[in-house]
Amino acid sequence: MMRLMKLRRHLRGSGRVLVFVFAASIVWLLFDMAALRVSIDDVNTHILKERVLREREMRRVRATPNLKMEFKHPVQRLDPAAIRDRERPLASDVYREGSKRAVLKDKKDLKRDRFKSVAPQHKADVYNHGVIAKQDAPGKKKVPNLDFGVAVANASQVRANKVVLERDVAKESLHAVASKEKLGVNETIVLESKDLLPSKAMSHQKPNKDPNAQKEPLKPTAHLHVGNISTAVRKSGVHKVLSLDVTHAPRDPNALGQFGRGVILPSSEDEEVRKRWDEGHFNVYLSDRIPVDRAIPDTRPEVCSQAVVHDDLPSTSVIFCFVDEVWSTLLRSVHSVLNRSPPHLLKEIILVDDFSTKDYLKEPLDKYMSQFPKVRIVRLKERQGLIRARLAGAAVATGEVLTFLDSHVECNVGWLEPLLERIYLDRRKVPCPVIEVINDKDMSYMLIDNFQRGIFKWPLVFGWNALSEDYIRKHNITVSDPIRCPVMAGGLFSIDKKYFYELGTYDPGLDVWGGENMEISFKIWMCGGEIEIIPCSRVGHIFRGQNPYSFPKDRQKTVERNLARVAEVWLDEYKDLFYGHGYQHLLDKSVTDIGNLTEQIELRKKLKCKNFKWYLENVYPELDAPLVKAEGLVFNQGLRRCLAMFKDSLSFETCDLNKQSQHFSYTWLRHVRQGDLCIAPQQSLNSFSVVSCDNAKAELRWFHKSSKSTLADHFIAEFASQHMCLEAESRDDSLHLSPCDSNNSFQKWQFTHYYASV
What's the pTM? Predict the structure, then answer.
């Protein structure tokens, strides 16, 4: 009993201890909760302050006029910080380094650290500067020393190597007079028209001494992921895309149009603007006052500055074709390539003068370009047009890749390497840069949506199309991913030179300009290649309301003839959609001679190209392309029966979908046909006949459902001088032509299925 009492006293004491511990824990927990509440309140207060400051800045931005397209410097977009600093002198040397931006704040920093303003006084061996360290053994591909921080390097090594590399790259100023590459100073070549044929083109090339030139690129052995970009890695090494912008002197930050800013001229100069507008169909007066090497904003997605490319990318020849181009825009185009292209990749710039008439494009241009060893001028002895001018440039090009550009562009930083990288990975890829807009009125550099691609609508009309949200989600596309492009714009693209000739280049039967982008796009896709738009490569382009130059022949007829050649060679049975959208007159060969197509058809067979149906299903399935406008039974509303054909006669029967004799089609060429037979109106007899179909004959065509008028349900004879319609006779089931009557039910016809109303 005593033991039990002692045990109770002991437990009673332990209980007090337990109660004390429990109470202390509760008090400690309350203190913790109070401290946490104070901490949360502090954080909330800090966040609230930041939000208030951010909203205040955004209100200031909205309240500031004319700042929609302003940029503080080449690579920085408009933001509140830029608004605060807009009254200060602008720093032109701001470049991305990872996700940070390095701004050189004072004159000492500018003098010490500006890698892009090195003066052009160099020794003759400008290539021995660390980018191309020394001559490789004969026959071995040169691999530049671009080892600046791949995945194994830490952040400080990356920065140090990048600074050294960019300083060394700048030492080969593209304005230098001497170069180890003996391309000749401003080598002017005069070509006859006979030299432009693809069969002759390769004779202008220098022999390729590289024994590995014919080999396909090696397969990648691994992949390195940088941001959202997956880049193939080979043992040869990779490096970050170079964001070069070399200039021979410090840029004037206050110059008109500097950093891509728009310029609003005073009204007192309007007359001068109007006077010179027709020289280029844009603001030529303003263009001439803007620096030819002005800086422009880096509009690439942020991740592009961190992308890596291979060290041993192929070299390229950049080809500009022009005729009577405005002096300042031509120079700005050339300078943008010289200043923003890695020197070891830029083999040459070829200017093809398509028989310009302006005096300043002759001796003055030769003299100006003589300071740039990599610039060559090819002059055609007669006007050839854009297509053959490009062939002339390709004929003398010595680079491994051909890059075609329009002569009124501005290439952005980092524009070249992403294009060459795609070709390096697959020589059959044809990459195009994102084409941004240089405003034709104020010369501002304008951003465009990242998710754009080139398409066409009938009748082969090129246009731009934004990718749908569903398409982006379905294919998991990021802002930096290449975009499959059904049709290229045609003015700006890169292509492996050998592949270009394997494809037969452009159809040499195409005249001047027009349709060449369709022709080469169909050829690339259907013959095993791919066209891509590369968001990490961006080039600004002046879009003009009309061509400032004249066509040797009628412009409309030239373009129509070119498109007809494209349709006949590449569209197969879908060519009726082209002709049926307003080009029926091109079918009359006595009026329009589209030339001989034998070589192009044989080339397509030789290349074993796929058919146009494959193209529609695999490349451009979004295009609406029914082979006929309507088909099925043809029901007459008055008789309540269907049309039937027996041999060469027509009658009416009770409608039956199982009877092939009752099945007709209404084609894009407006034929009512069954098989190879067409119903033809006979106006002289107010009757009809059944004849063999002939696409070129206008007298076989009927208007049906071509408008929303009261006669939409009628078959109206197209060639008739007055409205004559096909009418069913209620007494003997016969057919005849009668003056059209919107209330006559015996003149109203209905197909089972309609696919188009135009």
Answer: 0.73
